[in-house]
Each structure stands twice: as C-alpha cells, then as structure tokens.
Amino acid sequence: PVAGGMVEIVGSAEGLTLTMQRLALPAGAGGRQSVVSGTATVRPQDGMLDGVLDLHLNEVAFADLGTLWPDGVGGPGAKAWITENITAGTAHDLRLRLRVVASPDLSDGAVTEMSGAVDGRNLVVHWLRPVAPTEQVAARLVFVSPDEIDIAVLSGVQGGLTVTGGQVRLTGLAQAWQFATITVDLSGPVPARSGAPAHPSP
Prior knowledge:
Blueprint: E1 4-12, E2 15-24, E3 35-45, E4 48-61, H1 62-68, H2 78-85, E5 86-102, E6 109-125, E7 134-145, E8 148-158, E9 161-171, E10 179-187, H3 190-194
Antiparallel strand pairs: 1-2, 2-3, 3-4, 4-5, 5-6, 6-7, 7-8, 8-9, 9-10
C-alpha cells in the first residue's frame, strides 16, 4: 500500500525509466512514515533485460521491515537473517543499488550487483540464540554484494557489559547456506564478562 507520492515514467526504444520523486508509505507499528525516492531503469542488452534500481529510504522501524522488503530482493538469505535477528529499532538513511539481469519474459533472472548502506539505532540484535540479545545497538550495515553483508557494531549493551565495537560478516546470502562471522568488543566487570556467553536453561 502507498499513502501518496509522485512517480514519473518515461519510455523509449532504448528502455524505460521510472523516477520516484517521493513515495510515502503508510505509517507502521512504530508510527513512523517511510518515504522512498529513487530511480529504476530497464534496458534491453544482449537479448536480456538489464535493470538498475537506485533507492533511498528515510527511515523504517525494523518491526515493519519484513512487510516492506519484497521476498527475494537481495538474495534468498538477506531478508530472512536481518528480519529474524534484528527485532527492534530503527533503520535510517538507506541507500541501495540493485542490478538485475532477466530474460525478456521475466521467467528467469538474477541479482548481479548489490551495494549501499543503512544506519541503525536502538537496535535489538540476536547474534547467537538462545543467548540474550544485545540491546541499544548503534550499527552501520553495508551491502557489499548479493552474497555478502557487513555490519559494523558501534555500541550497545550486552547484559551487564558495554559493547564498544564489533563486526558481523554475513556470507552465502545468495546460496542455500548462509554463514556469519561475529566479533564483539566488550567492556565491563570480569564476572559479567566471563558470564557473557551464558544463557538461562530452558
């Protein structure tokens, strides 16, 4: 659903260009209204269709991200990992570029390029369930390729510890199996630090 906006479509023998000057989406559970702007182009090339999407999104609550993020965009694993493991907080200043190559009848296609970044604040991140999540997280997520996303963790709280930095590297997002490499820098009392990996027994 769209709350309002302005879109311009220009077509020619060389291709099709869609310009979203402002596309307002309905306010989600957090009461925030997401506004999308950007361009999408589709051109024939070597018997295929070459599509490029350049997108900017002002902000969105992570609780609403699963509804707004189309299935399959960014690879089969990106949406699932992010929406299942970052369960609260706000993403803002998203800039994303996607390139898709598809057959003329759209029966087959693949994302060949993905780049961009988005910042997050007040996030709740589940990094190793059933370990308690890291809260009050500030982070920057970078779309490296269709197969990789890197997350720089800037700050947060893990139980009685302060998160002073960290890195999450997600790979295999375009494959059947995904992998996560996680490093976290913690600061706090020794007893709390030694108990960080622990979790209550079920």
